[in-house]
Design goal:
Layout (H helix, E strand, L loop, with lengths): L1 H14 L1 H21 L1 H26 L8 E3 L4 E3 L4 H27 L4 H23 L3 E4 L2 E5 L3 E6 L4 E4 L9 E6 L6 E4 L6 E3 L5 H13 L10 H10 L6
Antiparallel strand pairs: 1-2, 2-3, 3-4, 4-5, 5-8, 6-7, 7-9
Helix pairs in contact: 2-3, 2-4, 3-4, 4-5
């Protein structure tokens, strides 16, 4: 029952993640202003509620990291099949917004009081950048996409595109129950394209999808090139699920 409830909360969070993140950013902004300009009021109104919410969403993030659904989101407008946005990224982004806003507020207060130093600013910059990247990742729901032309994995910093002509094969790490990555091998590696700083040059992230399911889909479209043109349609997705081996989830 608890697992089912967490699953529903995670699904709703992913579905409405833009609204959730906007609300989180608004609360973080108000908290930063309160800490920076009215510290007594900020501590009284925000410290304990934000502390509780931070701990709660971080616990949810840890729990949902173990969820590996075996399904895709159909995106006919692209067209593509995409792995679902990971709920744990949304929870982590929310969990870190509170501490980040408090840090920014403290820096503002120190600046107003004329006691801010380089040692106050330097640690805050990478911290704020990290939280910003996490929010962007959660907002966009980056993951793996299957296109008629190949497989694409994107992140806030870069992307990895593997054309079907590269004949990719996926290898699940031996002994791994729920691996967070799927090693890739290419018959034609020169066709693989990388932009920016991709998460990996030879692996796909599976921290938001069942690795066996992902590997089976890759194998299916490598072996059935005539089906690739229909990727992204609901009819093709239903046919794909019907032809794949038994799935868990």
């Amino acid at each position: 029952m608890v697992k089912c409830m967490i699953g529903k909360v995670s699904a709703a969070t992913v579905r409405h993640r833009h609204v959730v993140l906007v609300l989180g950013l608004l609360v973080a902004g108000v908290n930063a202003a309160a800490v920076g300009f009215v510290p007594t009021l900020g501590q009284r109104l925000f410290f304990y509620p934000l502390l509780f919410l931070t701990l709660a969403v971080l616990v949810l993030a840890l729990i949902t990291m173990g969820i590996r659904p075996a399904y895709f989101v159909v995106q006919p407008q692209i067209p593509a099949f995409a792995t679902p946005a990971p709920a744990w990224k949304v929870f982590i982004a929310l969990g870190l917004l509170g501490p980040a806003s408090a840090s920014i507020g403290a820096l503002v207060r120190s600046t107003r009081q004329g006691i801010a130093s380089t040692f106050d600013v330097v640690p805050s910059v990478p911290w704020v950048v990290l939280v910003a990247l996490l929010v962007v990742e959660a907002w966009r729901g980056h993951g793996v996409q299957f296109h008629p032309h190949g497989v694409r994995q994107s992140s806030a910093l870069g992307s990895l595109t593997v054309p079907w002509e590269a004949l990719p094969t996926a290898q699940i790490p031996p002994g791994a129950d729920r691996p967070s990555w799927l090693r890739m091998a290419f018959t034609e590696p020169q066709l693989v394209r990388r932009r920016g700083i991709p998460w990996s040059r030879k692996a796909l992230r599976t921290d938001n999808v069942d690795a066996g399911f992902l590997a089976a889909v890759i194998r299916h479209y490598v072996c059935h090139p005539e089906r690739r043109a229909a990727i992204g349609s609901q009819a093709e997705y239903e046919r794909l699920l019907a032809e794949l081996p038994e799935r868990d989830g």
